[in-house]
From TrEMBL:
GO MF entries: S-adenosylmethionine-dependent methyltransferase activity
Annotated source species: Linum trigynum
Key words of the record: Methyltransferase, Transferase
Superkingdom of this protein's organism: Eukaryota
GO terms for biological process, alphabetical: methylation
Protein name: Methyltransferase type 11 domain-containing protein
One Pfam match: Methyltransf_11
Limits of the Methyltransferase type domain: 54-156
Database matches in CDD domains: AdoMet_MTases
Amino acid sequence: MMRDVSSFSTYNYGDALYWDARYVEEAGSFDWYQRYSSLRPFVRHYVPTSSRVLMVGCGNALMSEDMVKDGYEDIMNIDISSVAIEMMSKKYEYIPQLKYMKMDVREMSAFADDSFGSVIDKGTLDSLMCGNDAPISAAQMLGEVSRLLKPGGTYMLITYGDPKVRMPHLMRPVYNWKIMLYIIPRPGFHKPAPGSSSSSCAYLEPVPITENGLLPVDYVLQDPDSHFIYICKKMDENSELNEDSSSYPLRVDKSL
């Protein structure tokens, strides 16, 4: 199993001109892959509401707005498209928890080291992987993400890329990331029929991965077009890479 569409792209998704044109044509809101309601258990578990959050490649998504409604206090949103940033800045000018800046994720020198407790990426690394010079762009972006994260902070990557095509980029020793993996079915996927052995909340449990960061050979995806959530925790020199209570199964707050 190896899913990556980089070699099939006819667009340079790392080019601001492409995204400017797209956002002019598509002025409404759009969330890639999953809405916040589906991602909420993961976000609430790994991202404290008081954390300073960096939303990379924010586009015109509702994700940040939904997080503020859920109690998040400080979200910096960046995007390579000036059209998207201008549109979103105007839309949310009266919401102080949301800030917007035009910026390329491959070069975020406007921010100091250890500036953020959390970085959330919903499709931005994927876009670079579909563009020109994908490996170089990915390394530049992830290097910047690692630099900006505080020790103990988390980079949450939501992607279509399975471990064979994403782990080689995420597991570079220089980042010193402890990585956990969750797999979530795509929106609208029909759950197994009643009486099957699969649990409806199985996706809330971390998926075991091998020492090389791959799925076990006998692992079968419930949904062949699942989305993958990589939780990359930045460890400091004194941290242990083995046991961490945050890797336990997530809980769903059914009151919301």
